[in-house]
Each structure stands twice: as C-alpha cells, then as structure tokens.
Here is the input.
Amino acid sequence: MIVAEAIRTKLTEALKPARLDIVDESHKHAGHAGSRPEGETHFRLIVVAAAFAGKSRVERQRMIHRLLEAELAQRIHALSLATLTPDEANAAATGS
Amino acid sequence: MSDTSVTDRIKRDLADNDVVLYMKGTPVFPQCGFSAAVVQVLTNMGVKFKGIDILTDPTLRQGIKDFTSWPTIPQLYVKGEFVGGCDIVREMFQSGELQQMLQTKGIAVKVAPPA
Here is the structure.
C-alpha cells in the first residue's frame, strides 16, 4: 500500500478533494509489461475536486501527473483518471 | 534530453496526418488495453488515422512523452494538436464532444448508431 498511500497523501494535500477513490488494478495486469510481483503498478483514480473548475480535461490530468511525477517515473505503469468538479460529480450522480 | 531527430519525426508525422495515435502495438494488434480502447473508439467513428507503434522504438517511446509532457501512452493527436489519452478520448466520445471536435476540424466522422 506504499504507492497508494503516497497518492492519497499527495493528492489530498494539494487538491483537497471532496472525493478520492484509489483503485489498485494491478492484479488485472499480472504478468503484463510494467507489472511487478509486488503490485501497485496499475491504478485507477476518481478525483472530485473544486480545483478542477474551469480547467480542461488535459489540464486536470496534468495537475495530477505533476503531483505524482515521482511515482509515475518509478513505479506506476498505468494511471487511469476520472477528474470531476463537485458540480459535475453531482450531475453525473443524478444522471443529468 | 529531447532528441531533435525524434522531435522532427513527430512533427512530420503530425503534419502529414490529420489523426495520429501513438500507441502500443498496431491498430490491428494493439498490445495494451488502453491503446485498444482508443483504436476501438476511432474505428467506431469510422475515422481514418495513422497508428504509430512506440514499442518498436524506445527513442520515440520517450520522445513522444517529452514532446507533449504527458507520461502515458496512448496519445491521440488531431491536426497536430494533443487531444488526450485513453480516459479523455473515451469521455469525449461518450459525451459526443469528440465527434463534434473532429467534425469542426473537417474530419469525416461516421455517425454511429446508438450502442
């Protein structure tokens, strides 16, 4: 859980997310390129934060890439991101 | 860090092709689920694109990441402009933004029947 904890700490400090889901999907990629026996290589994140307001999808993902630069360079092989503002998350939840 | 010949090659490919996908494997044999997902979206829309396999060239694999400051593959470019990776392409396709953006840029899109 070292990498997941690092992700949580860094994103929580910088983005103060209303919601942060960290799903370790490494097991789905066992034996593939970039996988490690100890796991924590493939992550899917759902980040809901007001800090994303007014920013494009690319800009939002770049914010996360920057915060996780060290992890991406050393350990994370794949990072799937859903980046929403609280308003967008509410709209998605109510299906509008 | 950035190799000029790689950068030149990227710029040339982007200038010569309206839609370019840097991917792992080829459009027919993608070597990664994320690359395969983007190929599927483009195929679904009937968009003609050039798939460039970065696995066959380590310099390009790093070069394209440096070129756009984007750490992951796949990467989709339309008319030389970076659109995004797998998540962004999928989200934009689902909301219809991708089809709209391609049409705005003069790229033929087949209007897919609702899935």
Q: What stands out?
A: The CA atoms of residues 13 and 114 of chain B lie 33 Å apart.
